[in-house]
């Protein structure tokens, strides 16, 4: 099915996006499952705003049927691991952890600490090893045709150009929260009594790995605080 995505699905992208544009995020998630059945999944990083999409999935009648993949680089802050356990327990989630075939120690022995060189090419390699490959392996294992994430258009230049549904690396990528603002996120979390990520209280508006995340500053906020400003995207949501 994956091999035929361009032949059978590309002509329908405009039609699908027309269907999705007036839907609420929960309706998009239901649409994804009803359209692609067990070939539909969602991804999470258990980052600052991850609880919103996870809460929405947990409240759907088909919650146990939608696979949830957590891409764990092995370098997440302690606060993120604790937060993940809390959300998994609070929302009664069933989560599959996706990790690199290379342990952190082995990767460092082989390539060094790729995040310390200040080279984009080294960060690209790091992300390929610890994020993109693990995700692709998980999607391949379960023959996933469409995966949803919590990306929003205001986060990066790349995401500002996204549609609700696009093709990423031969699969469909669904973005139910694409048009949501920070206020939308805040009010949803407040109304649904969702716990804040511990690092949010410490000034982080975006968090990934411990070595490549920092709190908001006077000149840098959001995704600009990631990867020492060398890049905005880890590559999961891009085709190159």
Verbal overview:
The protein is an alpha/beta fold and 240 residues long. The chain has a single domain (2-229), classed as HUPs (Rossmann fold, 3-Layer(aba) Sandwich), CATH 3.40.50. Helices cover 38% and strands 10% of the residues. The protein is built from 9 helices and 6 strands, in the order αααβαβαβααβαββα. Helix 4 (50-58) links the parallel strand 1 and strand 2. The chain is globular, with a radius of gyration of 17 Å. The mean pLDDT is 87.
Roughly how many Å apart are the termini? 22 Å
- Largest sheet strand order: 3-2-1-4-6-5
For this structure, what is the CATH homologous superfamily? HUPs
| Residue share in helix | 25-40%
The whole-number mean of residue pLDDT values reads 87
What is the CATH C-level name?
Answer: Alpha Beta
In total, how many beta strands? 6
What characteristic shape results from the CA principal axes? globular
Count of runs of 4 or more consecutive helical residues: 9
Order of helices and strands: HHHEHEHEHHEHEEH
Question: What integer value in Å does the Rg equal?
Answer: 17 Å
Structural class: alpha/beta
> In this structure, how is the largest beta sheet organized?
6 strands, mixed
């Amino acid at each position: 099915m994956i091999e035929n995505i361009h032949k059978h699905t590309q002509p329908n992208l405009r039609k699908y996006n027309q269907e999705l544009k007036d839907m609420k995020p929960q309706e998009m998630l239901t649409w994804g499952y009803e359209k692609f059945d067990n070939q539909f999944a969602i991804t999470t990083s258990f980052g600052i705003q991850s609880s919103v999409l996870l809460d929405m999935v947990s409240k759907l009648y088909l919650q146990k049927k939608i696979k949830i993949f957590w891409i764990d680089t092995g370098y997440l802050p302690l606060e993120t691991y604790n937060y993940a356990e809390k959300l998994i327990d609070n929302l009664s989630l069933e989560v599959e952890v996706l990790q690199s075939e290379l342990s952190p120690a082995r990767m460092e022995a082989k390539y060094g600490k790729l995040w310390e060189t200040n080279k984009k090419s080294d960060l690209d390699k790091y992300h390929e090893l610890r994020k993109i490959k693990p995700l692709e392996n998980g999607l391949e294992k379960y023959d996933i045709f469409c995966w949803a994430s919590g990306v929003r258009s205001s986060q990066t230049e790349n995401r500002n150009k996204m549609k609700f549904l696009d093709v990423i690396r031969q699969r469909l990528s669904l973005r139910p929260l694409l048009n949501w603002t920070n206020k939308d996120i805040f009010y949803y979390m407040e109304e649904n009594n969702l716990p804040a990520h511990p690092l949010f209280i410490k000034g982080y508006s975006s968090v990934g790995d411990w070595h490549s995340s920092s709190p908001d500053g006077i000149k840098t906020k959001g995704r600009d605080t990631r990867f020492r400003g060398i890049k905005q995207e880890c590559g999961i949501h891009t085709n190159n």
